[in-house]
Amino acid sequence: MNDHQDTLEFARAQDAADPRRSFRDEFHFPQKDGQPVIYFTGNSLGLQPKGAAAALKQELDDWAALGVEGHLKAKHPWYSYHEELTAFTARLVGAKESEVVVMNQLTSNLHFLLVSFYQPKGNRKKILTEQRPFPSDTYAFASQIAFHGGDPGTDLVEVQPRAGEYTLRTEDILARIHELGDELALVCFGGVNFYTGQAFDLAAITEAAHAIGACAGYDLAHAAGNLHLKLHEWNVDFAAWCTYKYLNSGPGSVGGVFVHEKHHGKGLPLFAGWWGHDKHERFRMERAFKPMNSAEAWQVSNAPVFSMAVHRVALEQFDRAGIANLRAKSEQLTGYLAFIIAEVAKATKTDLEVITPGDPAQRGCQLSIVAHGKGKDLFHAISANGVVADWREPNVIRVAPVPMYNSFEDAWRFGQVLKSALS
Ligand SMILES: *Cc1c(COP(=O)(O)O)cnc(C)c1O
Q: Residue 42: inside a domain, yes or no?
């Protein structure tokens, strides 16, 4: 859209034309001075769906009324609670139902998956990731390398941007994979980098990794619920994500996992637990571990029902809205916000540099702003005026208008707050 306008009327007209605008009413918005805040932090903690409280209460009530019998007799039986999330999850990330499971939390899941997919052998022992991955991922990679007796200083490699650039060029990522060749055991990128907001070409990276004999896995913390993923089609080996960011499932909620079907039943090494055992024989309580022939083989523990109750509500909303529809809205909404930021920069003669790629295919909804010379002061000023954004060291303000509940009017109002903070 080149016909954007920095006016309230224009923003409201966009909202009126948005078929998914009513989802906004299904969320609790924090208030400031009696007004809903401009909530642009769904990339850190998504808002609470209004249906969450009733879903949680259902489980509390069933527990009170049924005790242990809730495992089989609750409205949503706890024994198989995770199975109620499977179809929603598969549609959300572009997977077959056998390829996904909801379990544990993100970094824990990365470790469990690395046990299976990081198998350093001989010369092939390096892990390639993006520059400046989320710290937890670096800790996981480095500790796994050390666990196998390797040296994270040499075996953990980051693709660096070119001089003077913030983000990575796909051609440089692919070239680096090719160059490392048979030294590379695993390529493991974030789907979207938490700092720059850059979305990576997961299909191309996966293909390049496979071409030189490495595995390809992804941390989709900033991609699940943000991008239109096609994990099966892209031939991704494994992926993990959290559900409290774009997936609105509450602080510290349960995580999601994808394992491509080509790896099921192949005897990959894994850290086993009883919930990964063939469910038809689970309660025979036998000694020998017989893994499920699906991603559920990686489960270790029984379902954390309270987290999953909220996650079920949130996933059902995504299913109703449709991730392809949300993504289409997201490209428009983030494009509009980028326009608004550029208008404010012009009007106030401020250097507001958006370091997130301008190409919609290379970003999700987040924009990362470097306000040269003004960074943290500007962040505090907008925060004092009803914007909930976040600050990431050393110098980025992150703003994420999420298509599920943010509006074009939010983007326009954000511009007004930004302008007055800079004037
Ligand atoms: C948010 C985030 C995490 C957080 O990990 P938890 O185990 O959920 O605490 C890890 N990695 C990335 C890339 C993230 O964005």
A: no
For 172-209, what is each residue's pLDDT tens digit? 999 999 999 999 999 999 999 999 999 999 999 999 99
Q: Mind listing the pLDDT tens digit for each residue in 32-86?
A: 999 999 999 999 999 999 999 999 999 999 999 999 999 999 999 999 999 999 9
The pLDDT of residue 2 is 60
Asked if residue 236 belongs to a domain, the reply is yes
Ligand 1, atom 10, lies closest to the CA of: 136
Report the 3 state secondary structure along the chain: CCCCCCCHHHHHHHHHCCCCHHHHHHEECCEECCEECEECECCCCCCEECCHHHHHHHHHHHHHHHHHHHHHHCCCCHHHHHHHHHHHHHHHHCCCHHHEEEECCHHHHHHHHHHHHCCCECCECEEEEECCCCHHHHHHHHHHHHHCCCCHHHHEEEECCCCCCCCCCHHHHHHHHHHHHHHEEEEEEECECCCCCEECCHHHHHHHHHHCCCEEEEECCCCCCCCCCCCCCCCCCEEEECCCCCCCCCCCCCEEEEECHHHCCCCCCCCCCHHHECCCCHHHCCCCCCECCCHHHHCCCCCCHHHHHHHHHHHHHHHHHCHHHHHHHHHHHHHHHHHHHHHHHHHHCCCEEECCCCCHHHECCCEEEEECCCHHHHHHHHHCCCEECEEECCCEEEEECCCCCCCHHHHHHHHHHHHHHHC
Give the residue from 305, 321, 337 where a domain finishes: 321
In short, whether 294's Cβ falls inside 6 Å of ligand 1 is: no
Q: Is 251 in the pocket of ligand 1 (CB under 6 A)?
A: no
Q: Ligand 1 centroid to 248 CA: how many Å? A: 14
Range of the domain at 364: 8-36+323-422
Q: Is the pLDDT of residue 286 over 90?
A: no
Ligand 1: atom nearest CA of 219 is 13
**Are residues 307 and 390 located together in one domain of the fold?**
no
CATH code for the domain of 263:
3.40.640.10
309 & 384 share domain: no
Question: Does 3 map to a domain?
Answer: no
Number of domains the chain contains = 2
126 lines ligand 1 (CB under 6 A): no
